[in-house]
Amino acid sequence: MQRDKAYVIKHYKKSLDWINNLRGLSEEQWRTPIAPGKWSVAEVIGHLPPWDMFVLNHRVPFLLTDERLPKGPDVAHLNTMAAKKSREQAMEETLNDFISTRRQLLQTIQQWTNEQWQHSFKIGQSEMTIIDYFVGLINHDLHHFSQIQNVIHV
Fold this sequence. Notes:
This protein is mainly α. The protein has one domain: Up-down Bundle (Four Helix Bundle (Hemerythrin (Met), subunit A)), CATH 1.20.120.450. A two-stranded antiparallel sheet has the order 1-2. The longest helix has 23 residues.
């Protein structure tokens, strides 16, 4: 599978469609855990927008520079707060949060040239290209989308 700008853009566009398809879920499906003792569909989807915002605000501005990347957030805390928020808000609101933040991120990264996608940077001791970084984010999405599909069969 080709891992390039087009691959990333295609995934991000398809993720918007995939999320929109969840609008047909019942409240029961939306609140169903992906496995016993695990997050619900709502919580899984709800934890994605804060990460998109983190990437948009604390990664994107630095990826094409030689500046050091800011320290990442406390993963457990961010995920806990996002899960709590998605438990308390309506499905429509959670889905709209995802769509809004994902569109912002998509609009930003679509502007990069093919050469910029090949730019290397460091996270800690690891060096990677921007493509590598976004493929990792895509794999995170796909992992969670698969978990949800296994529960609600969409």
